[in-house]
Amino acid sequence: MTTRSASPATKVFREPAVEPRARAPRRRRRTLPLRRLLAPYVFVLPFVLVFLAFSVYPLFFTLRLSFTDWHGSGAAHWIGFDNYRYLLTSSGFWSSLGNSGVLWLLIVPAQIVLAVLVAVLLNAIKRLRGFYRVAFVVPFVTPLVAVAQIWIVLFDQDNGAVNAMLGAVGLPPVGWLVTSGWAKPTLALLFLWKTTGFVVLIVLSGLQQIDRGLYEAASLDGAGRIRQLRTITVPLLRRSLMFSLVLQTLAVFQMFAEPYVVTKGGPYTSTTTAGLYLYNHITRADLGTGAANSFLLVIVVMAVSLLFVRLLRAED
Amino acid sequence: MNPTLRRSGRTARLLPRRGAAVAAAALLVTGLSACGPDISSDAPATGNAVLQASSDEAPKGEITVWDRSGDLYKVFDAAIKKFTAKYPGVTVKHEAVDIDSKLQNTLITGTDVPDGVFLDDAKVGGYVSHLWNLKDVLAPYTKDIAKQKVDVNTVGGGIYGVPFDLDPGLLFYNAKALSAAGIDPNGIKTYDDLLAAAKKYQQFKPGAKPIHLEQNAFNSQLQLEMFASQLGTGLAGPDGKLRLNSPQYHQILTWLDTVRKEGLGTRAEYLKPSDVSALDSADEVFYPWAIWFDFAPQQQLTATKGDWRAMPLPAWTAGGARSGAMGGSSFVIPKDAKNPKLSWLFYRFLMFDQAGYTAVYGPNSVYPGGLNTSVPAYQPAADPAKPLFRPIDAMGGQDVWKTAVEAGREIPGGAPIPAWWSGAVDYLGTDLQKMLDGALTPQQVIDKAGKDIQTNLIDRK
């Protein structure tokens, strides 16, 4: 506010006058040169082209293929939803999803618990920390085929080291890879051994973001290590754990190489995972059914992943 | 200005741009999607392209041929030198390739298509629409090629592969172990005789399970087809109809089930550690398998190396055929090959020219005694009196050539391999394994696998 009686020397705060909009000088719109206008689009163009060619186009091509009976040569015939109908009424498709579901149950919960425990221990130890971290990551970077061959030898029913150890303590041999009851747990063990190190890394990075002060305060309040783990570590690791959960769910439902190398989907079809079942269609040049199968698999995996994401949001 | 209003104003300005971008992307994607196969409601084109031989006396050019890596690649590599010596104008680019994983994509896309490919007989039928029909070029030789090999390469009257090897089924046996048990292998003339001999051996060596019962679904179906081939049948007839529900298959499955029920079979995968262990401990002494089992005594068995011999398979009925075919490969020429005529020239040399088949089967740096895991499908090359490979030391110096060639001549024809054969493993191979584990009866295998193959494979082609 202003006053007429104030001396000129007095500094008076004046609110900036608000010019009526109608009187405001019209800002002249400067036209940018065409080159500058196009520059951002040109910069993103390489990515967009690659994305269109290698992600969007295959996606649409596969969608189109899923409505045909194309076997890799000649004309494809439009058959509507026949491939989807066939798969949804096929025992093989549901059995492959069931196998992946059982493997998920055998792998993911155990892996998350194991990863938290290992990460907490790795975070706590002072000596040889680097060595242990590397040791847990080594299986993840070892070629799968090499690991699978070791698994085949270790778990051989007659000459494997595992059965030899069981024999040494008077237990009968187990058909680890040749009986439908044991093949899935044996495969799950391979997957756990191979990929847990990666989950440990994710959890470890989450652990290092937790404020140490929280532990010190809890300690002063008399909370023991187990209580700290339950009330501080696990709740604050929730995002890392959810991320791992979604990632490993995707990995398990797409699992292909492990059963392909170790069991070829057997015995019977007990380890034919959703990924391997899909592959079988493609190798038989039943490309239309394979395309429909991949879309159904995408829907299942997306639904499961979205469920986890929703759960995470609800917790937040 | 109210930020919300400002944002909505901006959004309003951006909408046309975004719409245009999405429309452009959709247009591009739709255009690209149309690059796939034509979609029509017409009957599939059979595309019967019949290859004709070149009349060029001094052929020139380059061909690319695919072989699978390993011993055979090296064998063919050596044979190529003989070919180029005879045809100096032709260059052969020889590539070791994982054919199973590469061929399909290559043929579909038509990119870098080779001029010739080494392919399992069971897979030829699945690719015929991409291959040259070789009926005319093979015509001068067809009468001299083992009938079974012509049949497996024949689809709809066309011949789509140059037959390479014949893989007769033989009964491999541990001669030393049988001799100790007082069993004369020459007395095994029928499968009932084999059961009796196995029982006698088990009495001699309690705990032994003398007959191999394959534990891998694919191999067990392959072995089943060997038995069926012996009876002049196969999963599908020349008309493409399923022949599983037949007295022949019932007889074979019942015999396998008897081996299981009477505890006479070793359940193991072909030459996996369990199998090798049972073979080397002389618990498993009978192995009805293709000639390529002779690799085991030569390379894998230690304790029983030198003890093994081969004889023709027993017959299903007295006087019946003493062999059936198990496996085998041929050479195919893709329609998109750049030089199909030169490719045919190459395979004609390898299979029908004495210099060629001698280079393949005769002594070479890879097999100093000659390639002894199969015999030629071309009958003039498979003369019992003119062996291309030498007697095998690891089999006690037996002349396996003579045994195999004579057995090969007993293989009946009339058993084409349908395009869906490999796919049937998920059903027939799996159900066969269930039967060998005691979970299904022979009739249940026939009914269940028959229904699944019909529904999932034949009706969907």
TrEMBL record, chain A:
InterPro entries, A to Z: ABC_transporter_permease, MetI-like, MetI-like_sf
Keyword Ribonucleoprotein in annotation: no
Main localisation: membrane
Domain ABC transmembrane type-1: 97-308
Transmembrane regions: 37-60, 102-122, 134-155, 187-207, 236-257, 294-312
Gene3D superfamilies: MetI-like
Subcellular location: Cell membrane
Topology in the lipid bilayer: Multi-pass membrane protein
Pfam families named in the record: BPD_transp_1 (PF00528)
Keywords of the record: Cell membrane, Membrane, Transmembrane, Transmembrane helix, Transport
Entry similarity comment: Belongs to the binding-protein-dependent transport system permease family.
Name by which UniProt lists this protein: Carbohydrate ABC transporter permease
Organism: Amycolatopsis albidoflavus
From TrEMBL, chain B:
InterPro entries xrefs: Bact_solute-bd_prot1 (IPR050490), SBP (IPR006059)
Protein's cellular compartments: Cell envelope
Pfam name, any one: SBP_bac_1
Keyword Transport appears in the UniProt entry: yes
Signal peptide: 1-34
Major localization class: other
Annotated keywords: Signal, Transport
PANTHER family with a match to the protein in the record: ARABINOSE-BINDING PROTEIN-RELATED (PTHR43649), SN-GLYCEROL-3-PHOSPHATE-BINDING PERIPLASMIC PROTEIN UGPB (PTHR43649:SF31)
Family to which this protein belongs: Belongs to the bacterial solute-binding protein 1 family.
Protein name per UniProt: ABC transporter substrate-binding protein
Organism phylogeny: Bacteria, Bacillati, Actinomycetota, Actinomycetes, Pseudonocardiales
